[in-house]
Design goal:
Layout: H1 3-17, H2 22-29, H3 33-41, H4 48-57, H5 62-66, H6 80-88
């Protein structure tokens, strides 16, 4: 999964946990509601400067937003169709 998507999910998770609406957070950090939505969906990359602003606003360390970026992704299955076919037989 892309870093932008992982960070965006964390922003949304923390915002909801704190009971802050997307419009309210957008106002607090100085971006449009649409831009915040793009950050949360991972459509647009959030700059480091903007992530620091989000971090301060949500009273959460920047590292918390990046935690999921350092986990090892599950291995890709090679020949997944062959394995599935063998299972049926």
């Amino acid at each position: 999964m892309r870093v932008s998507m992982l960070v965006g999910k964390r922003i949304q998770m923390k915002r909801r946990e704190l009971g802050i609406t997307a419009a309210e957070l957008a106002d607090r950090i100085g971006v449009s509601h649409q831009q915040l939505s793009r950050y949360e969906r991972g459509t647009n990359r959030i700059s480091l400067e903007q992530l620091v602003v989000v971090s301060i606003t949500l009273k959460t360390s920047v590292s918390w937003f990046l935690e999921d970026c350092f986990t090892t992704p599950p291995p890709l299955m090679k020949n997944q169709y062959i394995c599935a076919a063998e299972t049926v037989l």
